[in-house]
């Protein structure tokens, strides 16, 4: 079932505007995948309007990847595999199984129910409500870093209400206006968010650098060692 976009978020509205301005480009991508898919993004020609002169950090100078990402979010195309580490794209109808269409209201209720169970708690007008299946067992006393996209903090307002911890990813904020840094990670200690840290991997020297730390970063040695091992870093520089 294709995702029905409600336009509640700015990025959804921008996606709609991009598709409206590039209707022919959209038809070209879908036609090529239909005839020749699965394909890599570089195997699709860029027929978009207003092509970029300067490279975007994610899309480069071509808008093919942007088109594919939007079409993927709306259920038209899907990632079906990888070739040499690069994603292979094909039509979603050839990838996903046939399912019955679900009324939007029922789909939203099912999504809310599953989200509540996955997150464990939700904020209602009466206050915080715990899911019946949520565990109240002690949380392990360990320290780790959270991805900016971790579900624990993905909803920034919920995270602030639950942990009294205001977090935002500042990579899109002009450097002079950043409060912390380009790619800062929350520090989770047990069941509390206690601080922030900005690690960066220098691939040439295989060094994991700590560009900055805020709040309580006193117990981050083990988490840094785990991150360094995951990234293949050979040394850690805490400066």
Descriptive report:
- With 239 residues, the chain is an alpha+beta fold.
- It has a 5-stranded mixed beta sheet with strand order 5-6-7-8-9, with helices on one face. A two-stranded antiparallel ribbon has the order 1-2. A two-stranded antiparallel ribbon has the order 3-4.
- β1 and β2 form a beta hairpin.
- α1 crosses α2.
- It is globular.
- The termini are far apart.
Keywords:
single chain, 239 residues, alpha+beta, 5-stranded mixed sheet, 9 strands, globular, disordered N terminus
The residue fraction in helices comes out at: 25-40%
Tell me how many strands there are. Answer: 9
Strand order of the largest sheet: 5-6-7-8-9
Q: What shape does the CA trace take?
A: globular
Structural class: alpha+beta
Encode the helix/strand succession as letters.
HHHEEHEEEHEEEHE
Largest sheet: 5 strands, mixed
Strand content is 15-25%
Question: Overall pLDDT, averaged?
Answer: 89
Poorly predicted tracts of residues: 1-5
Give me the number of helical elements. Answer: 6
Distance between the termini: 51 Å
Radius of gyration, taken over Cα atoms and rounded to an integer in Å: 22 Å
């Amino acid at each position: 079932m294709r995702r029905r976009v409600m336009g509640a978020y700015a990025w959804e509205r921008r996606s709609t505007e991009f598709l409206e301005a590039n209707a022919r480009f959209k038809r070209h991508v879908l036609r090529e995948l239909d005839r020749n898919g699965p394909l890599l993004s570089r195997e699709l020609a860029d027929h978009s309007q207003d092509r970029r002169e300067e490279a975007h950090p994610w899309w480069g100078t071509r808008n093919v990847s942007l088109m594919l990402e939007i079409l993927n979010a709306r259920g038209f195309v899907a990632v079906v595999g990888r070739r040499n580490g690069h994603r292979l794209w094909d039509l979603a109808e050839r990838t996903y199984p046939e399912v019955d269409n679900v009324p939007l209201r029922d789909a939203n209720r099912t999504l809310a129910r599953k989200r509540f169970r996955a997150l464990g708690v939700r904020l209602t007008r009466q206050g915080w409500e715990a899911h019946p299946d949520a565990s109240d067992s002690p949380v392990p006393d360990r320290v780790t870093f959270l991805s900016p996209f971790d579900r624990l903090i993905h909803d920034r307002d919920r995270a602030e209400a639950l942990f009294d911890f205001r977090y935002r990813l500042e990579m899109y904020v002009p450097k002079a206006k950043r409060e912390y840094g380009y790619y800062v990670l929350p520090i989770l200690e047990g069941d509390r968010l206690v601080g922030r840290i900005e690690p960066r991997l220098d691939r040439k020297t295989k060094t994991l650098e700590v560009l900055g730390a805020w709040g309580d970063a006193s117990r981050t040695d083990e988490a840094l060692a785990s991150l360094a091992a995951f990234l293949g870093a050979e040394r850690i520089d805490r400066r």
